[in-house]
Amino acid sequence: MRSFSYSSPGQIGDASDAARESGAQIIAGGTTMVDLMKIGVIAPDALVDINGLSDLEGYAVAGDRMRFGALAKMSTVADDPAVIDAFPALSESLWKAASPQLRNVATLGGNILQRTRCPYFRDTAYAQCNKRNPGSGCAALEGGETNLHAILGGSSACVAMYPGDFAQALIAFDAEVVVSGAGGERTIPFSQLHVQPGDSPEVETVLEPGEIVTEIVLPVVPAMANSTYLKARDRESYAFASASAAVGVAMDGDTVSDVRIALGGVASVPWRATDAEDSLRGQPLTEETAREAGRIAFETAEELEGSAYKIALGADVVAGALMQVKSRMGGE
Amino acid sequence: MSETPPDLTRPGVSRRGFLQGSSAVAGSLGMAVGAAEAQQAEPSADARTIALTVNGTRRHVTVEPRTTLVEALRDTLGLTGTKIGCNQGQCGACTVLMGGTRVNSCLTLAVMAEGTEIVTVEGLADPTGDLHPMQAAFAENDAFQCGYCTPGQILSAIACIEEGHANDAVEIREYMSGNLCRCGAYPNIVAAIEQVRDSEQG
User: What are the protein's UniProt keywords (chain B) (predicted)?
Assistant: First the structure.
């Protein structure tokens, strides 16, 4: 690991100022950052440790808006009975990610900003990676293995997949993130935080230098209580998603009045499947309509040779998650 | 973001990385190792002394910002019970308790552990040498073969019960998934955890 300087400001303004310096990088839990520093993918000159900003550790799920401080730990929130009860998909998206050791350290704010697991991004022996080294090419698209890559939201410059789970629960339920920086505080719809690779895969979010995520806010809706996060992966635990879905449903009698569907493991950014949602609204929730929603969710997919399996798998995961929610509602 | 050379100063550089890398990469190995030795001889200007409590004893260690907790424990404090496996948070061999919760000490910068209470495998047996119940259960259940992952497994297992995630074998397997055992002692590890859980409940 290359040498760097270290500071741990006690005030958010000081942290933001320090992080705005060239070569500086904010660190919270550090589970992604330290890993990427060890393997030489990133080499900051200065780390700004924000764990001293203890105001950002709290969270509250009561009331009409859920609020999660950016420094709340994944394990704390995942295990909270109030969260499990009010928003099961959120708890599941957290405990089905990473390992217990990582979840004890990793923060919610850091989690949403985790970097891709693209093997060519992570291995500096490959010169071609437009995300790591802009303009160098894409080893995945130039004859590489593509089984871990995005089939939605990719570009001719980059097909790296956004690997997060928690983000899918957030985007499905209209989360917003509050960020603090030189220009003061601003609120960004979560769906606009991440940007698709396009011609500039090195740009992953709309955050300005020095801006720090302070809070995640979600409007409470009935479909949250009837939600789940279904995750298909190569091994039963402690693996990134091959395909996953965060879904939530609210019924009006026998028809769907509200439905939320977001897709993990398949897209370049957190991905809301609005066309699939539209297909279900006003319809009964049956295995047939659930399967149709799954099919529609991947209608615009552009598979590569290695990633074609994600279309059928992803459609099954969407349908399976919807039927799981239905059976839970029926059981009450 | 600028491209940086691969860090060849530690074990764990992938074989494929070597094969794919140009001769320039392979050729730089000797130089990189030399640089690492120079770094050890001349600590960075940012080196600092931090205090932390290890196994109940207040300790002071001088570390660079890039020193990981496991390196401070093993190399500076001589507590080599904590193992480095993958060194990137995937295997759990480096698991220690920090502030009562299990963490991967390979992904924790020592400076970020300042002021915390650390428990390593050396801190589990009581002063008379009697093993911690989890250590005894691992021995009784043959919950290891080569033993390399065992210190991390034991600390993780203690935390697994403490967290309330040891209610049945399925839950134990889920909440022990951050500790890999390449000898495949998993069924016996689960049995050891169930034994300790049951004795604590009784």
Answer: 2Fe-2S, Iron, Iron-sulfur, Metal-binding, Oxidoreductase
Q: How many domains does chain B contain in total? A: 2
First to last CA, chain A: 53
Let me know whether B102 and B153 are in one domain.
no
Give CA–CA dist A323/A315, Å, rounded. Answer: 12
pTM of the predicted protein model: 0.91
Shortest distance, CA B3 to any CA of chain A (angstroms): 6
Chain A stretch 22-61, residues whose beta carbon is closer than 8 A to a beta carbon of chain B: 27, 30-31, 34-35, 37-43, 47, 49, 51
Query: CA A49, CA B115: separation in Å to the nearest integer?
Result: 15
* pLDDT tens column, A122-181: 999 999 999 999 999 999 999 999 999 999 999 999 999 999 999 999 999 999 999 999
Q: Is residue B40 part of a domain?
A: no
In a shared domain, residues A189 and A243? no
User: For residue range A231-259, what is the model confidence (pLDDT) as tens digits?
Assistant: 999 999 999 999 999 999 999 999 999 99
In chain A, what residues touch B102 (CB-CB under 8 Å)? 100-101, 104
Q: Which domain holds residue B86?
A: 48-123
Q: Is residue A89 part of a domain?
A: yes
